[in-house]
Amino acid sequence: MSRARTPVVAGWFAGEEGDFHLLGTRCSACASVFFPREDTHCRNPACPGDELEEVPLPRRGRVWSYTDSRYRPPSPYVTDPELPWEAYALIAVELEAERIVVLGQGVPGLAVADLAVGMEVELVPGVLHEDAETVWTTWRWRPTTGVTA
């Protein structure tokens, strides 16, 4: 029996390994780009626009900031209290042309010691949680050079 692969948040990302990308929206009036996506109005306070189009965001960006997570996160993240908590890298990535910063976890095995501000990273699919029926999918950031995690 195969388990259903279900996005943690529907409509925020699409594609497979080679074509995996985040989905944002762009305002047709001011060209501002948003992630997470916006479906009702432009978030730019100087813009009265409400015509938004879905746009795939670039798969590569540069580390803007990073830290590690050393605590069990609250819901909706699922952790097994019987297992020891493993820290993970949390990375803020700048998408320069879109003028936005997107937060996400680093790939498993990536430590903050492996990161540097300005380093190029790429978006890859990841798994947030698995249970008997479902594989809950998400996105992760992976350095483009120097790390094989």
Describe this structure in words.
A five-stranded mixed β-barrel has the order 6-7-8-10-9. It has one domain. The mean pLDDT is about 90. With about 150 residues, the protein is mainly β. It has strands spanning about 5, 15, 20-25, 35, 50-55, 60-70, 90-95, 100-105, 120-130, 135-145. It has no helices and ten strands. Helices cover about 0% and strands about 45% of the residues. The two termini are about 30 Å apart.
Total of domains:
1
Decide which structural class fits the backbone.
mainly beta
Order of adjacent strands in the largest pleated sheet: 6-7-8-10-9
- Biggest β-sheet strands, sense, barrel: 5 strands, mixed, barrel
Give the SSE string.
EEEEEEEEEE
**What's the total count of β strands?**
10
Task: Summarize the SSE layout with pairings.
Blueprint: E1 4-7, E2 13-14, E3 21-27, E4 33-34, E5 52-56, E6 60-69, E7 88-95, E8 100-106, E9 120-130, E10 134-143
Parallel strand pairs: 1-10, 8-10
Antiparallel strand pairs: 2-3, 3-4, 3-5, 6-7, 6-9, 7-8, 9-10
Summarize the structure.
0% of the residues lie in helices and 44% in strands. The protein is mostly beta strands.
How would you describe this structure in keywords?
mainly beta; 4-stranded antiparallel sheet; 44% strand
